[in-house]
Sequence to fold (307 residues):
Amino acid sequence: MPLSIDAADRVAVVLVEALPYIRRFRGKTIVVKFGGNAMVDAQLKHSFARDIVLMKLVGMNPVVVHGGGPQIGQLLARLGIESRFVDGQRVTDAATMDVVEMVLGGLVNKEIVNLINSHGGQAVGITGKDAAAIRARKLTPQSTGDAESLPEEIIDLGHVGEVEAIDTALIDLLSGRDFIPVLAPIGVGADGATYNINADTVAGKLAVAMKAEKLMLLTNTTGVLDGGGKLIPRMDAATVQALIADGTVHGGMLPKVHCALDAVAGGVGSAHIVDGRVEHAVLLEVFTDSGVGTLIAGALDGVWPAS
Fold:
């Protein structure tokens, strides 16, 4: 059925708006952290996969890093293994790490690969253990309690790690051969031990290591909000630091904002905290002036291409 005149006009407007972005970001690497509602809602999952395929088709090099906390929790519950968290970090003993690796490196990773491939892409799933892409070290044990009222307790998080180094050789090879890498955030220590690492952290470190043009973090929020609860669409690093200092940015948004700031400081062109509850959020953030989240850059000059 042919498009109506109004619909055709809208399509033309969208394409004209997208053209300078396509031109500017052709050949550039964009690291996308896939998580939140976008990972569990069927419609949003397909929307995300189509976005990634389209990015590749117009000449960009998307690299996907994914989480999987809810899926890990569900399987642990089915197996009768209790989930315990300290400051948002899952306490991960050897048995739990087996489940984490099974879910992240197997079930979740291969589902994302299959989704992308079903929409015409060529995705390849890997973990940070493949080619020792992510060298990890054990996260320092966490302390709990209040020195004034509660005794301090040192909690060993087990197989929870942090990034020590990233070797991008395998990911570069896949991207250069027109594959779409899909990376599970599992690293390997110098002693051969396996570590579960926060997916936002991995995405940020990978973006820096690959000299990416953009880092995109999909979330379950509209983005960074000002003191009145209104979305801030664009900020430079100095403004972000000021909002952290005065308490405007707080709580669960703080780790994502720090991840974005670290990426920008490390040479990534811009970082985006994107509302993953919106269909085609990735395309809207990359290809339109308004976007669907908050863009953070070292300086805002030159972030948008000339029409």
Summary: The first strand starts at residue 29 and ends at 34.
